[in-house]
């Protein structure tokens, strides 16, 4: 029963990891760029929510009203001012986002010190549904999972059904051909970055309520996001969710075996998938 | 200027440059080897740090600048080198100075299975993949007792076999090892790039598909560079901890090792042997002057990385080298203007 409970908790944790991974996967899908600052941007959102919730005396979940547009603008600006100028090389975008990651992490350290923080969202944080004696499902983890599912559905609709989605798909398939029919790829990249950072804002707030965070939490969030994407298979949105779940279950079950083994088990499962199914569980040559 | 008149002077200038370069290197090397007899202990320790950083940077430059392998996981091999030194020196009772070389070899051997995993990923995802692998080595070291190998856990270990050596003997030996690692990394890069492997690497860098079509074994060439870089980083890691004596997993497997390599190579000029040397000098001076500012110092380095990615791709040597057509380590093929030369 203890084990089953761990599996349930890991499954729900997978929702959080899918939230981490969505933005990373979208940016890669559209512009073949890997954002090494993903984890630090998530943690930056957690800290922004922490400050906003404190100053306005709001529930941290409510700060998303401000944070989502704010992060989206930040994403568009960073893409237009910096990252669009790096896309002609393989190394330059990695270098630029790695630099960004170092800057964000150390700026947070400078302002907030290395202490761990937590966002407090009220009763929903602690209340849970008791399924059986030893299995209980927390409301907040369940909500996180449902938000992740909802976000993936919303992104699917955006990409399949809207004009913006068509530009994103066209640019992803063939940038030059898209340009020929009048699509400004730089603008499309800006939009992709904006959407990506909007999801990062959500990921940041949910991370902050889910667990403790500190300025140095970023890199491991990047690694979890990346593992979810690769386990699921590049370009497969539901694959990313499954990847997140696989990773989450591996971590919680590993931690049950021995306290120090949580992350390690997650990494090892990821490496095993890479060896056995290098294209991931649900690889499809499609956009997020 | 006619073709006729430009031939002879160009040749003479090259020959003089060759001789001047040889003399220059001989003098520099002579001065560096004798450092223990005319520098203070503190100065020697600074140089140990300098040369180990140079070795690390040269290895990252080989990977990213020539083989197109952007690794963010080279701290794996720094940590493996450090803990190999501990295992060999303290547990197997091998003399620490000998253990340093073996630590490099152990890192090279361990790098082979990591290549099997990491090479399934490309580009940016390769970069994060190598980082995951580094995390795995970190966590394995941290939880070593669970696997029957006690590596001191989070508190780390002191390399007693090295600490118990006579003080000036250890200082001199460490310095010469560091010098050997630094100079060796430059020499190794130079010889590797002038060999057939260098030619294959240039072909791969310019066009991987074309290189494959003319018979270059792309995978084998990249794996070779990966293993060589692991050897270099492992050896440098062992020398670093021969100097520091206390190994802690968090510090030994710190991603900042790779961050430093990246900054050095990018500032100096990626894809050149001169670049990392200049980069190490600049990085070292910055570190001495600014590391007291902690976070701000790293914020500055991050900004430099972004600036390098967006505005000055070639780094400092990229600008100087092109401006004056200068090459301290000629590894590229030139079209000779003189028949038979």
Describe the secondary structure blueprint for this structure.
The complex is a heterodimer of chains A (288) and B (341).
Chain A: H1 2-31, H2 38-56, H3 64-81, H4 91-112, E1 128-130, E2 136-138, H5 139-161, H6 163-173, H7 175-180, H8 185-210, H9 218-232, H10 237-257, H11 262-276
Antiparallel strand pairs in A: 1-2
Helix pairs in contact in A: 1-5, 1-8, 1-9, 1-10, 2-4, 2-8, 2-9, 3-8, 5-6, 5-8, 6-8, 9-10, 9-11, 10-11
Chain B: H1 3-33, H2 35-38, H3 41-66, H4 75-91, H5 96-118, H6 123-142, E1 157-158, H7 160-163, H8 167-194, H9 196-206, H10 208-213, H11 218-244, E2 246-247, H12 249-252, H13 256-268, H14 274-290, H15 295-310, H16 315-324
Antiparallel strand pairs in B: 1-2
Helix pairs in contact in B: 3-8, 3-11, 3-13, 3-14, 4-5, 4-6, 4-11, 5-11, 8-9, 8-11, 13-14, 13-15, 13-16, 14-16
Radius of gyration of chain B over alpha carbons?
Answer: 21 Å
What is the helix fraction of residues of chain B, given as a range?
A: over 70%
Strand segment count of chain A: 2
Could you give the order of the helices and strands of chain A?
HHHHEEHHHHHHH
Question: What is the H-and-E element order of chain B?
Answer: HHHHHHEHHHHHEHHHHH
Structural class of chain A: mainly alpha
Distance between the termini of chain B: 21 Å
Shape label of chain B: globular
- Largest sheet of chain B, order of strands side by side? 1-2
Strand % of chain A is under 5%
Oligomer: heterodimer
Largest sheet of chain B: 2 strands, antiparallel
Taken from the alpha-carbon principal axes, the silhouette of chain A is globular
Largest interface: A-B, 46 and 44 residues
Instruction: Specify the number of helices of chain B.
Output: 16
User: What structural category do the secondary elements of chain B indicate?
Assistant: mainly alpha
Number of strands of chain B: 2
**Which regions of chain B have little confidence, pLDDT < 50, spanning 5+ residues?**
1-7
Largest sheet of chain A: 2 strands, antiparallel
Number of discrete helical segments of chain A: 11
Span of the ends, CA to CA of chain A? 36 Å
């Amino acid at each position: 029963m203890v084990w089953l409970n761990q599996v349930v908790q890991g499954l729900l944790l997978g929702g959080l990891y899918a939230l981490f991974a969505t933005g990373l996967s979208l940016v890669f899908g559209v512009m073949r760029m890997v954002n090494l600052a993903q984890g630090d941007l998530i943690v930056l959102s957690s800290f922004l929510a922490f400050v906003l919730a404190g100053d306005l005396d709001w529930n941290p979940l409510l700060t998303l009203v401000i944070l989502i547009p704010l992060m989206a603008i930040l994403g568009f600006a960073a893409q237009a001012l910096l990252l669009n100028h790096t896309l002609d090389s393989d190394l330059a975008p990695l270098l630029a986002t790695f630099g960004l990651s170092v800057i964000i992490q150390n700026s947070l350290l400078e302002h907030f010190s290395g202490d761990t923080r937590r966002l407090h969202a009220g009763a929903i944080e602690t209340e849970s549904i008791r399924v059986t004696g030893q299995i209980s499902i927390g409301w907040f983890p369940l909500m996180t999972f449902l938000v992740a599912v909802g976000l993936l559905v919303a992104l699917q609709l955006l990409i399949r059904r809207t004009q913006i989605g068509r530009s994103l798909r066209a640019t992803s398939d063939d940038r030059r051909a898209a340009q020929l029919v009048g699509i400004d790829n730089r603008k499309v990249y800006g939009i992709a970055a904006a959407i990506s950072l909007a999801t990062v804002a959500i990921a940041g707030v949910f991370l902050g309520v889910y667990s403790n965070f500190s300025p140095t939490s970023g890199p491991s969030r990047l690694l979890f996001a990346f593992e979810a994407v690769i386990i699921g298979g590049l370009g497969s949105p539901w694959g990313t969710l499954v990847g997140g779940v696989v990773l989450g279950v591996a971590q919680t079950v590993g931690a049950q075996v021995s306290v120090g083994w949580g992350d390690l088990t997650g990494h090892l499962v990821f490496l095993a998938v890479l060896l056995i199914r290098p294209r991931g569980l649900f690889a499809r040559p499609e956009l997020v | 200027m006619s073709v006729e008149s430009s031939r002879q002077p160009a040749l003479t200038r090259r020959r003089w440059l060759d001789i001047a370069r040889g003399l220059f290197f001989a003098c520099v090397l002579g001065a560096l080897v004798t450092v223990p007899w005319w520098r203070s202990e503190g100065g020697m320790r600074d140089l140990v740090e300098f040369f180990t950083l140079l070795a690390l940077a040269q290895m990252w430059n080989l990977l990213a600048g020539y083989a197109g392998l952007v690794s963010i996981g080279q701290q794996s091999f720094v940590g493996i080198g450090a803990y190999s030194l501990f295992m060999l020196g303290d547990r197997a009772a091998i003399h620490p100075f000998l253990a340093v070389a073996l630590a490099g070899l152990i890192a090279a051997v361990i790098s082979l299975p990591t290549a099997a995993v990491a090479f399934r990923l490309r580009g940016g995802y390769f970069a994060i993949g190598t980082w995951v692998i580094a995390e795995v080595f970190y966590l394995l070291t941290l939880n070593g007792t669970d696997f029957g190998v006690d590596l001191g856990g989070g508190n780390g270990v002191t390399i007693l076999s090295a600490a118990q050596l006579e003080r000036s003997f250890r200082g001199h030996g460490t310095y010469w090892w560091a010098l050997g690692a630094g100079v060796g990394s430059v020499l190794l890069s130079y010889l590797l790039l002038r060999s057939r492997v260098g030619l294959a690497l240039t072909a791969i860098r310019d066009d991987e598909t074309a290189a494959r079509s003319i018979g270059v074994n792309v995978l084998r060439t990249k794996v070779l560079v990966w293993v060589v870089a692991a050897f270099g980083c492992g050896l440098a890691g062992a020398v670093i901890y021969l100097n520091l004596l206390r190994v802690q997993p968090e510090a030994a497997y710190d991603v900042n090792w790779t961050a430093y390599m990246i900054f050095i190579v990018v500032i100096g000029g990626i894809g050149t042997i001169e670049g990392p040397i200049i980069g190490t000098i600049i990085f070292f001076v910055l570190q001495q002057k600014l590391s007291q500012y902690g976070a701000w110092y790293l914020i500055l380095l991050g900004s430099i990385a972004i600036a390098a990615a967006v505005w000055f791709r070639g780094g400092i040597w990229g600008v100087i080298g092109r401006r004056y057509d200068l090459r301290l380590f000629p590894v590229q093929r030139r079209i000779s203007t003189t028949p038979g030369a």
